[in-house]
Every structure is written in C-alpha cells, then in structure tokens.
C-alpha cells in the first residue's frame, strides 16, 4: 500500500471521529429554553454563544477535511486501474481449457453438441393419445360464456 494511501486513510479516520465527537458535543435547538431558567450556560468557557459558534465551525472544517480525504482516496485508489490486470490472484494457476465437461463413461460428443442431448427422453415413454377429430355426441355442449362487456341474456319470468 503506497504511503499516500495510508496517509489519506489515517486523515479520513481521524476526521470521521472528530465529526462524531463534535456533533455529539453540540446542543440541540431546544436547549436555549433551559438557559432562561438559570442553567448557567452564560458562564461557560466560550461565553453565552461562543461554544455553539466554535463547535459548528469545527464541525464544518472537519467535514471539509473528511470529504477532501474521501476524494483523495478515490483518486489514489483508482489511479492505476487503467493498466493491465494484476498477475497475482487466486485463479492464476487455474487451467484455461474451457471445453464442456464430459459425463464419465460416455462417448465423446460429435460436432460440439452437449452429451446426452439426443437421448434426453427415454424410449420407454408411450406417446400421448391423439385428440378426437369430432366432439362426442353423448356429451352435451356447454354454451360459451358471454364476453366481458356483454350483458348476460335475461330469462323471462314465468
């Protein structure tokens, strides 16, 4: 890992921790009402409103440093990806033969076809019976259902 990458990573972690601490130290918007009842915020180290201004400014600059280090990390880490692929890896010693694996004990397939594709249906399966050419007269015909937009025919009352 290059020195610049390590340095930027350290700056990013430190600035992220600084943002977390600074945000947690800040008071919410509803904290001003407590000072009206004598919470004593005017006697603080930074004055009545000095702490809020200092913490918000410090948070702003910590965020600027964080985003700058993030952009720097993105630039440094993707700077060398346009070159050739890395030669070391898990798949380096994997054989480059990409042929279709054969079933053990089967004859090699001719013409590059998948082995066993011609005999995928066993010969002992009977053929399906053919449909009758004309309807059976013993079965009464069922009237077709009306279309979706049509009203069904009303039957007269007896």
UniProtKB/TrEMBL annotation:
<feature type="compositionally biased region" description="Low complexity">
    <location>
        <begin position="99"/>
        <end position="147"/>
    </location>
</feature>
<keyword id="KW-0653">Protein transport</keyword>
<protein>
    <recommendedName>
        <fullName>Protein-export membrane protein SecG</fullName>
    </recommendedName>
</protein>
<keyword id="KW-0811">Translocation</keyword>
<dbReference type="Pfam" id="PF03840">
    <property type="entry name" value="SecG"/>
</dbReference>
<dbReference type="GO" id="GO:0043952">
    <property type="term" value="P:protein transport by the Sec complex"/>
</dbReference>
<keyword id="KW-0813">Transport</keyword>
<keyword id="KW-0812">Transmembrane</keyword>
<comment type="function">
    <text>Involved in protein export. Participates in an early event of protein translocation.</text>
</comment>
<keyword id="KW-1003">Cell membrane</keyword>
<comment type="similarity">
    <text>Belongs to the SecG family.</text>
</comment>
<dbReference type="GO" id="GO:0009306">
    <property type="term" value="P:protein secretion"/>
</dbReference>
<dbReference type="GO" id="GO:0005886">
    <property type="term" value="C:plasma membrane"/>
</dbReference>
<dbReference type="GO" id="GO:0015450">
    <property type="term" value="F:protein-transporting ATPase activity"/>
</dbReference>
<keyword id="KW-1133">Transmembrane helix</keyword>
<feature type="region of interest" description="Disordered">
    <location>
        <begin position="81"/>
        <end position="158"/>
    </location>
</feature>
<dbReference type="InterPro" id="IPR004692">
    <property type="entry name" value="SecG"/>
</dbReference>
<keyword id="KW-0472">Membrane</keyword>
<dbReference type="GO" id="GO:0065002">
    <property type="term" value="P:intracellular protein transmembrane transport"/>
</dbReference>
């Amino acid at each position: 890992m290059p020195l610049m990458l390590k340095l930027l990573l350290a700056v990013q972690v430190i600035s992220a921790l600084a943002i977390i601490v600074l945000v947690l130290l800040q008071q919410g918007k509803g904290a001003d009402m407590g000072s009206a009842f004598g919470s004593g915020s005017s006697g603080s180290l930074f004055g009545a409103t000095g702490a809020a201004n200092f913490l918000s400014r410090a948070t702003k600059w910590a965020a600027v440093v964080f985003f700058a280090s993030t952009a720097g990390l993105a630039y440094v880490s993707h700077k060398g990806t346009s070159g050739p692929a890395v030669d070391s890896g898990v798949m380096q010693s994997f054989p480059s033969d990409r042929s279709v694996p054969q079933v053990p004990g089967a004859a090699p397939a001719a013409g590059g076809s998948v082995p066993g594709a011609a005999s995928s249906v066993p010969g002992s399966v009977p053929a399906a019976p053919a449909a009758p050419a004309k309807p059976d007269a013993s079965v009464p015909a069922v009237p077709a259902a009306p279309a979706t937009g049509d009203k069904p025919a009303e039957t007269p009352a007896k």
